[in-house]
Amino acid sequence: MVYQNLLIENKGKIQYLVINRESKLNALNKDTLFELHIALGDALQNNKVGGVIITGAGPKAFVAGADIAEFENLDVEGGKNLAHENQKNIFNIIEGFSKPVIAAINGFALGGGLELALACHIRIASDNAKMGLPEVSLGLIPGYGGTQRLTHLVGRGKALELIMTADMISAAEAYQIGLVNYVVSQDGLMSKAEEIMQKILTKAPLAIAAAITAVNAASNNEVNGFDVEINQFAGCFGTADFKEGVAAFLQKRKANFKGR
Ligand code: COA
Asked: Active-site residue numbers?
C-alpha cells in the first residue's frame, strides 16, 4: 500500500511510523486512521519488525487531535460508529500489540493525539511537547479511550481535572503526574525512544508479548489479571526462548532469542 498520510521506515528491527499531515498538525482524519489500521496490521505480521516507534512529522506536533473538520456533520449514530470503529481497529490494537510500541511525543499531543500516545506502551516526550484532552471545548468528550486510559495512568482526580478544564500541560507537568515516562530535549527524543526499544528488543519477544498481555489485564475489568498472569507465565515455559534464556544464564553467555 502507498501511504498518503504516514511515513514508514524500518531500521533494523524498529519500525518508525510517522503521522505525516504536518500542515494540519498531523490531525487524524479518516484516511490517516484507515492507513494506521493497515500499517499496524502489516507491522504485526512482519517478522522483521520487532517494535514500533510512533511519532509525528515536523517539529511542532505529535498529533493535534482527531480532524475536527470531519466532526461537523456527525450525529449521535455517526459519533458512536466513529469511536467504536477506531477504538477497535486502532487504539485497542496498539494497546494490545504483541510487540512494544513507544510514542515519541514531539510536540502537541491533544485529543485523539494524546489518546494515541496513551494507547502506546511507553511514552517519551520532548521538552516542547504540550498535552491535553481539550474535547469539552468542542462540546465533546474523548472518544478514543482517553477517559479510560488517562484515568488508569494518572488517577481519577488528575484525569478529571485535565478532561474537565481542557488544559494543556507541559511535558514537565506530564512527567510529574506519570503521563510520560521521560522528558528529553527535542534533539534527543528519537535516540531516547531507540535506546529503550533496543533494550526491549534484546529480550525474549514472546515474554515481552506475555508481559504486555498480563499488564493490560490490570485495567480490564472483564478478566482476572492474576489468572491472566498465571497463564502467561505458564505459557512462557513452553517456549524455546525460555530454554535458551535459562541455558544462556547458566552458561554465562548472552541469550540468542528467536521469538519461538
Ligand atoms: N483538526 C483539524 N485541523 C487541525 C487540528 C485538528 N485537531 N489541529 C490543528 N489543525 C489545523 C488548523 O486548522 C490549521 O489549519 P489551516 O492552516 O488550514 O488553518 C493547521 O492545523 C495549523 O494549526 P493552527 O491552529 O494554525 O496552529 P497554532 O499553532 O495556532 O495552534 C493548536 C496549535 C494545537 C493549539 C491548535 O491548532 C488547536 O487548538 N488545535 C485543535 C486541538 C484540539 O482541540 N484537538 C482535539 C480534537 S478532538
From this structure: 115, 135
Please give the distance, rounded to the nearest whole angstrom, from the Cα atom of residue 49 to the centre of ligand 1.
32
Amino acid identity, residue 126?
S
Q: In what order do the strands lie in the sheet with 169-170?
A: 61-63, 108-110, 130-132, 169-170
Predicted confidence (pLDDT) per residue in 123-168, tens digit? 999 999 999 999 999 999 999 999 999 999 999 999 999 999 999 9
- Cell numbers 496498539 correspond to 94
Beta strands in the chain (DSSP E): 6-11, 14-19, 51-56, 61-63, 101-105, 108-110, 122-126, 130-132, 169-170, 182-184
CA of 199 to the centre of ligand 1 (A): 36
Beta bridge partners of 19: 6, 56
Q: What is the pLDDT of residues 40-60, one digit of tens each?
A: 999 999 999 999 999 999 999
Question: What does pLDDT average to over the chain?
Answer: 98
215 phi, psi to nearest 5 deg: -65, -40
Q: In 3-state terms, what secondary structure has residue 253? A: coil
The C-alpha cell that represents 4 in the structure block:
498518503
The DSSP call for residue 64 is -
For a ligand 1 pocket test, name from 25, 60, 150, 167 the mutation site with the most ligand atoms within 8 angstroms of its C-beta.
25
Question: Taking residues 67-91, what's their average pLDDT?
Answer: 97
The DSSP-derived string for 121-174 is SEEEEETT-EEE--GGGGT----SSHHHHHHHHH-HHHHHHHHHH---EEHHHH
Q: In whole angstroms, what is the distance from residue 209 CA to residue 226 CA?
A: 16
| Nearest CA among 163, 165, 200 for reference residue 179 | 163
